Amino acid sequence: MFCCLRAVRSLKLSTEHPQLKIPKSHMPVLELCLEKILLQSILQSRTLSGADAINALRPFYFAVHPDFFGQHPKEREVNENSLKRLNGYLENLQKPGFRSFKPTQLTFYVREREPNSSNVQESFSASGFRAVSFTLHTRDLLSTVLDILNSCSLSTEHVQSLNVNSQPHKEAKSTVNRPIKWDKTYYSFTGFKDPEEELEQAQRVETTLISWLDDNEASAVKKLKKSLPLRKELERLKFELSCQLQLSDIRWQRSWGIAHRCSQLHSLGRLVQQRPEVLKNVKGHTVVFTDRSGMSAAGHIMLGTMDVHHHWTKIFERLPNYYKLQKRLLFLEDRISQLLGGIQVIYIEELQPLLTLEEYYETLDSFYNKLRDSRLPFHPRSLRGLQMILESDRYAPSLHEFGHFTIPTVCDPATLQWFIFAKAQEARENLKRKEEMMITEKELIDTSTEKFSLDRLYKEPSVSSAQMIDCCKRLLEESLPYLQGMHLCISHFYSVLQDGDLCIPWNWKN
User: How large is the average pLDDT for residues 290-311?
Assistant: First the structure.
């Protein structure tokens, strides 16, 4: 590395001293080559700690932070899910001896900035944000950080100036969550925006439910009335296609608008007319419009909204093969259950990442082979009635409030055995409480819908039953004439959706 620095220094001297006889036409090429060599030398000679990685990614985190997308629920959800997967990838990189890396494709909505704006609230372009997709396949923190920043068109200059250390992994891991504080005079002097100040401003405004409804009722009613013809059209299309294809259901993964959904159903309807023979195997299944085509881990037919009819046709033609793979998957789940004392392996769409059937089968197969080789001494049927899900981006097992175990695919068998034995009784109690909670939740939703004359009351998947119950109980104590005939979504933020749905946070303030 020092040789590279001397070379760069010599190159600069050559421009000042013509007697070195380096043609000026060659200078840009030489500079570029030396810069690449220098960067490669830095990458090879330095090890980035977890704290350094978080520090280096600060511009990225503030460009994609979900709190800045309160008015854009679809983009907020995409960023939340992608951040979870990214954090899992970064944790894997810091895990000692972990070598099983799979390419991870991520999509983020990145906030756009106007280059010469001095006002925090006006520092974004008219479009507000842009979608960025990239695939991570690096095996060290520094390369990963640079890939992320470059993919989002963010500066990487600050990465080279980091005080990178080569401490042992344990020391680095202990400082991962150390907060980084920058002196405020830096932002005053440079004119750059303080990202923490922006985040505080985004979170500081505490709106009350009544005042927000006062300000937004008229806008929501106007949008709702405008969307009513399209809503009727959507219901008609959904009903006709469901009957024609004998589908169990038609769903959407994202919070797309009514017009967008109608367009997707029209597109499917045209395919039915043009190629009716390829849809003969869809009977009894659920079709989900989502980001990619295939069959989901839950056995639903996924139709990518960005794909053309040709891609959809291929998926329908492959259905017999998918059904065969699905049988093999069910067999694997049954084998895992037998090895773990009868515990049921399940897949929960609302709580787990959207996986294809192939991805989920690979996860199950890897876990089964590891489990089979360990020969854990579980008594047959000793854990019947209990449930578990598999997660590939976790390291320690946990027990969900709904009673199912969340088991990492890389979990040590001995740790797994001890954890399940220790938490089995608590899991049974949580499962029983889950049933009671779901009954209570449904009753409160029905009561609230009737009291406020709502056309529809629903929640986002990320809102738990406990949060929904708390929200509905508090709503029932209020008098809210604004809600008559409205569509109310319980979420984590305030928003009026493009079709007039009102979104309120479950923990709204009064």
Answer: 88
